[in-house]
Amino acid sequence: MTTSNAKFDPWSPATVTAVADVLADTSEGLTGREIGHLLAQIGIADAEGSSKRERLARALLTRQARDKASNCVIKFITDAMAPVRYRQQPDVFSRRRDDLNEVLVHLGLRVNDEGRVARGTAASTLDQAAQHANSLRAELRRRGTHPQVLAYCTKEILAKNAFHASLEATKSVFDRLRQLTGEQLDGSRLIDTVLMPGATGTPRVAINTGTTPTEKDEQKGFASLIRGLGSMYRNPAAHDPRIHRPVTDDELLELLTTLSMVHRRLDHARV
Question: Which of 69, 103, 112, 120 could form a disulfide with 18 if both were Cys (CB 3.0 to 4.6 A apart)?
Answer without folding.
Answer: 103
